[in-house]
Amino acid sequence: MLLINCPYCGEREQEEFTCGGEAHIERPKNPPDLSDDQWADYLFLRQNTKGLQYERWNHSFGCRQWFNVARNTATDEILAIYKIGEKPPPLESNEPLTPSGEPHIGSGNFSTSKK
Amino acid sequence: MRLQNNKNLNQTKKIGFTFDGKKYYGLEGDTLASALLSNSVHLFGRSFKYHRPRGIISAGCEEPNGIVQLEVNEFTEPNRRATEVVLYEGLVAKSQNRWPSLNYDLGAINDLLSPFFPAGFYYKTFMWPPKFWKTYEYFIRRAAGLGHAPKKDDPHKYEHYHYHCDTLIVGSGVSGLYAAKIAAAKNLKVLLVEQEDQVGGAILSSNDYENKINTNSQTEWKKTILDELNNLQNVKIITSTTLFAYMHYNYLLAIQDLQPNIGKDKKNSVRQIIWKIRAKKVILATGSIERPLTFNNNDRPGIMLANSASKYLNGYGVNLGEKIVIFTNNDSAYQTAIDFHHNNIDITAVVDVRNNIEGDLPKIVKKLGIKIYSGSIISNTTGRRKIKTAHIKKINDNNVEIINCDLLCMSGGWSPTVHLFTQSRGKLKFRDEDSCFVPDQAHQKTISIGACNGTFDLKNILKETYTSVNDFLNEEEKILDGELYDAERINIGKQENAWIVNKENISKSKMFVDFQNDVTAKDIKTALSEGFRSIEHVKRYTTNGMATDQGKTSNVNALGIISELTGQDISHLGTTTFRLPYTPVTFGAMAGRFVKEFFDIERKTPMHSWHVNNNALFEDVGQWKRSWYYPKKNETMDEAVNREVKATRDSLGILDASTLGKIDLKGRDVSEFLNRIYTNAWSKLAVGKCRYGIMLGDDGMVIDDGVTTRLGDHHYLMTTTTGNAASVMSKLEDWLQTEWPELEVYLTSVTEQFGTISLNGPNSRKIVELLFPDQDFSSETFPHMSFKNLEIDKVSCRVMRISFTGEICYEINIPASYALSLWNKCIELGKNFNITPYGTEAMHVLRAEKGYIIVGQETDGSVTPVDLDMNWIVSKKKYDFIGKRALIRSDTVKEDRKQLVGILTVDPSIVLEEGSQLVEVETSLPMPMVGHITSSYYSPNLGRSIALALVKSGTKKKGVKLIVPTVNTSVEVEITNPVFIDPKNERLLA
């Protein structure tokens, strides 16, 4: 279970939070001008990254504030937490490697080191 | 008779217990296993598949054979490891998987038939015909399986504890205790967790003559260090506690067994506790598990892991046998020979697969005059209920020497207990010299020390613990000066692999790998020859490592066997995944206190007690308890609902509507906000007016509806459906915080702050006139869809004239604490008008008669407001609102989408099932379906059945006949307008 550092309340257990999916998907300002494909892109399509992903989280059983989390989905490391409206802080690598050098796609559920 | 060395026991306290109906005695400190062994009970159960007699092979949590049904009736628990159950007075245990008795078991016929039970037997045999699997399964499950689940409620309690610490240490052997001492000296908050009931780990199995720490025996050393730790405020030690899960961010779960709390007199006591631990740093000192050797008939009672035999001998003084043979591929088993010698018990022979035996321990054994068969193996054993003979032969020589034997101690090397380390996502590496997986790269703030790190000799364990723990904790203060402890150096000879002893005979032999699931080396060979390659596949096909012991003694051996048969390196094979929990955890413990009335929150309205007193039946809506209907005396549900519906239309009905979600919206931009989240326009709504709104997702689908009232210029009250209140609130917050931070809107949930009384029916006006005599309630001054702030006995109320029945209706919102009193007043005043409380069922009928939808009943997440024939509520003028763009997607504008219609059966007495499918013509299956019934009721006001449905192109098909095929017959129906009563709103607006 993750330990999440809510920017308003401090470190709390994951069970107090809800994940709201990928972050930085802005709702278009001009929906009527968009094609079906463009609208579908906003509405349905997500990256589902293995590696560094920017996500929205809500402290739903706490202050109820939304904020952003940069998480490595392959290792579950939280690399940064920042408020809504802020730009993601610079992170060293866009695809942090997993401890055993697992592949970029696939579960890679290895218990032994792959070198 | 116990032997003299029995340091884990309290000699003075005898404990009585029962096994398979027979009374025995043990001593305080015994496990069930040690107590039974000391009573010369070696037969503990029958194996899973072949029903072979089985005895104890280990002295810890890895035990595959010695599993029992503990206690009886509601207290019973299956598959408890006898090696872990601490003896208590009156304990009752039974062996498992045998019938009629342990000694005479009819299932043992399976052993003779074993050539017909190869790996994958069930997959291969019971495939045809496919439909028969259900029949087969019933009998297979009856024949197999281990213990029985309790059939009654568990009367015990289970707790969950939360614990935070600086340093968590798992395991209290030499390295764990030493680490605790170091961490404690650094002023850290330390939690030390030990799975056994006594602290000590391997110290509990060591003899006190050798392997001293400084000049003390390990037992004396433990006592000193434990006294120190017990006196410290910053150290907590919990025993009988197994750490079973290691998750993200050093979050770990442990289960503590308060075992003697079982039994009738302990009914409400706590039986187990789950510790939820968040540690800054974790030190794993979990030790290692000895591996069996894989030889023919290696599963007879009396064949035991060598170190476990030492533990029973040194710790519990159990006299295990007199004709003892040791079979090994490494040095550690020689210690067992030495331990027996110290107890004046002779060893008949040590059989060692190695030719070069060079370590210090074998040298001592040689000096003691014990016969060592080097370069030799045990090729077979005999003895049905206990081992009688062992067959010894030189490798590459066919001459077999048969020797009598009543205890065979085996050692196939050691596997570090790396389960928790890999659960924490640390990676392993394979160490060739002694064939074991050791921790490589850690992923969290954790280190492994001692045997679980592959460090097996005492001198190095002490050294490693000192340096690693100091480095890891790296606190400036109070570092212990120098290394405190040292031990004698012992040279260890090289281990030699013997994954399959006597490989030539594999196909004709019973070399057990997984004792609990009865998997043999031959089964693994079969799996390989049938093309299984991945270790994960071989595991699942053979079920190796899938029993309740999760392969603690079998997984590495299986890897070794695959490696030997296929010629691949073990390091390339990898391991199967070490999943949590490390040992089985009871459902009771997982549920903790969250059972029965605590399973979920129950929300009750301020008028709940009145409903209970007036015979209401309740329906769960979300977490709310809502009155369903109020039967009188002998009324059936239908009769009660019809009466409630009819009374409301004819005169006056009263509904407790407190459960509807209420959100208070304040701020400069509320009107703009409502414009964005509802499909219709809000800017021009006058203060004191109400408006119905439909809320969509950005995919255009209906997610909620309700009436919103403008209380002031910048103040609105929104109502939501009962079930969606929380999710709507959180969605609105989402939009405000993340998309439109520029809007000044403040949301507050006020659902529980108000009680809501809904008065419906032509006589409702007469009641509000009595309640608020100063107010004119005529439609001219107080029209439909308007609101007034009124006072009753100086209590301010919000009164809305809105309606969900199609009748004149006043909804009074009053602060919750006054709601019951106002409800009683309404009931009193309404007596002259036959005031009738009605529940959710009548509410549904009333709204369906009027064609009002319910979100979640007429909608299912795939329905747009256009589909609901509610074009009038979708603003064409607004540039944008949530869901607008999606309403012109190619899919949402399709002509043949399912649309809301009314349905009338040709035979008015038939009430259709909700969910029934509608077809145009009956054909052979599958029939093309054109729609489905969403709501269906008997309408007492119309004297016939009514229904709502979603039908393809329904709005254009009024008058068309369709068919509802049911199990026995087909019902003819006609598509109609969905408004069955008062389509001109004459009653509503009266």
Which key features would you list for this structure?
heterodimer; A: 115 residues; mainly beta; Folate-binding fold; two-stranded antiparallel ribbon; 1 helix; 6 strands; B: 990 residues; Ubiquitin-like (UB roll); FAD/NAD(P)-binding domain; seven-stranded mixed beta sheet; 23 helices; 27% strand
User: How many strand segments of chain B?
Assistant: 47
Strand content of chain B: 25-35%
What order do the SSEs of chain A take from the amino end to the carboxyl end, as H and E? EEEHEEE
Please name the two chains that share the biggest interface, counting residues whose Cβ lies under 8 Å from a Cβ on the partner chain: A-B, 34 and 38 residues
Oligomer: heterodimer
Rg measurement of chain B, Å = 38 Å
> Which homologous superfamily in CATH is the superfamily of chain A?
Folate-binding superfamily
**Helicity of chain A, in percent?**
under 10%
Q: What characterizes the major β-sheet of chain A?
A: 4 strands, antiparallel
**CATH C-level category of chain A:** Alpha Beta
CATH topology of the domain at 157-288 and 416-473 in chain B: FAD/NAD(P)-binding domain
Globally, the shape of chain A reads globular
Q: Which structural class do the helices and strands of chain A define?
A: mainly beta
- Order of adjacent strands in the largest pleated sheet of chain A: 3-4-5-6
Mean pLDDT of chain A equals: 87
Biggest sheet layout of chain B: 7 strands, mixed
Count the helices of chain A. How many? Answer: 1
CATH homologous superfamily (4th level) name of the domain at 157-288 and 416-473 in chain B: FAD/NAD(P)-binding domain
> How much of the polypeptide of chain A forms β-strand, as a percent range?
25-35%
Q: What would CATH call the architecture of the domain at 157-288 and 416-473 in chain B?
A: 3-Layer(bba) Sandwich
CATH class category name of the domain at 157-288 and 416-473 in chain B: Alpha Beta
